[in-house]
């Protein structure tokens, strides 16, 4: 049987600069650590997806270049995965845009791994989670989003996005996901 693949998206120091996400950080990290523990116990493929740009922003998207937004700069503290997450020696995918699939090796890697489905966790629900879910759907991957393992600084956009994504993916709380997975 093929194993699922867990994608943990943009759980980086620079992702948690807004007051709204700072307030959710501890609870979100705790939920993701529980998901990671479950995924490792069940031998999921685990992939960490990180946004990262050159210091001169030459590979950053237009708004960042236009407004000289210096976030997620390679080699800096801001581009590193949060220290409270239990990262092990697992594969990292570097992305330059919202989607984990856009101009990355993710689709090729997933074709090799042949996961039974994808599980998404991380930030921001309305941007990076949404585009990864849509692109995965368009590439014919089955997607599950763990609703208590994703967050956005804007709760309204988070809620609207999860409502929308229920049309193309399964959105479920962590406890329900574990229960259903264990039931087969």
How would you characterize the overall build of this protein?
The protein has 184 residues and is of the alpha/beta class. It has a single domain, classed as Rossmann fold (3-Layer(aba) Sandwich), CATH 3.40.50.850. Helix content is 39%, strand content 19%. The chain contains six helices and six strands. It has helices at residues 19-41, 62-67, 106-113, 125-138, 155-165, 174-183; strands at residues 5-9, 45-51, 91-95, 118-123, 143-151, 170-172. Strands 3-2-1-4-5-6 form a six-stranded parallel beta sheet. Strand 1, helix 1 (19-41) and strand 2 form a beta-alpha-beta unit. Helix 4 runs parallel beside helix 5 (155-165). The longest helix is centred in the N-terminal third of the chain and has 23 residues, at 19-41. The radius of gyration is 16 Å and the shape is globular.
Rough shape? globular
Helix content: 25-40%
In CATH terms, the superfamily is Isochorismatase-like
Beta-strand percentage range: 15-25%
The ordered string of helix (H) and strand (E) elements is EHEHEHEHEHEH
Oligomer: single chain
- DSSP strand tally: 6
Q: Report the biggest beta sheet as strand number plus sense, adding barrel if it closes.
A: 6 strands, parallel
Regarding CATH, which class?
Alpha Beta
- Report the CATH topology name: Rossmann fold
In total, the number of domains comes to 1
For the record, the CATH architecture stands as 3-Layer(aba) Sandwich
Uncertain regions spanning at least 5 consecutive residues: none
Helical/strand content category: alpha/beta
Mean pLDDT: 97
Q: How do the strands line up in the largest sheet?
A: 3-2-1-4-5-6
User: Gyration radius, to the nearest Å?
Assistant: 16 Å
**Terminus-to-terminus distance:** 11 Å
- The total of helices stands at 6
């Amino acid at each position: 049987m093929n194993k699922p693949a867990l994608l943990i998206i943009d759980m980086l120091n620079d992702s948690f600069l807004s007051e709204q996400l700072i307030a959710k950080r501890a609870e979100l990290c705790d939920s993701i650590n529980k998901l990671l523990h479950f995924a490792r116990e069940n031998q999921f493929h685990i992939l960490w997806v990180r946004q990262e740009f050159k210091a001169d922003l030459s590979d950053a998207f237009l708004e960042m270049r236009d407004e000289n937004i210096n976030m997620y700069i390679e080699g800096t503290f801001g581009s590193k995965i949060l220290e409270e997450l239990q990262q092990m020696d697992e594969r990292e995918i570097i992305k330059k845009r919202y989607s984990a699939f856009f101009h990355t090796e993710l689709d090729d890697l997933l074709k090799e791994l042949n996961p039974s489905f994808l599980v998404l966790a991380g930030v921001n629900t309305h941007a990076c989670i949404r585009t990864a879910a849509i692109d995965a759907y368009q590439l014919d991957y089955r997607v599950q989003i763990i609703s208590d393992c994703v967050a956005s600084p804007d709760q309204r956009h988070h809620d609207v996005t999860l409502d929308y994504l229920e049309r193309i993916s399964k959105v479920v709380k962590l406890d329900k996901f574990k229960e259903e997975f264990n039931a087969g």
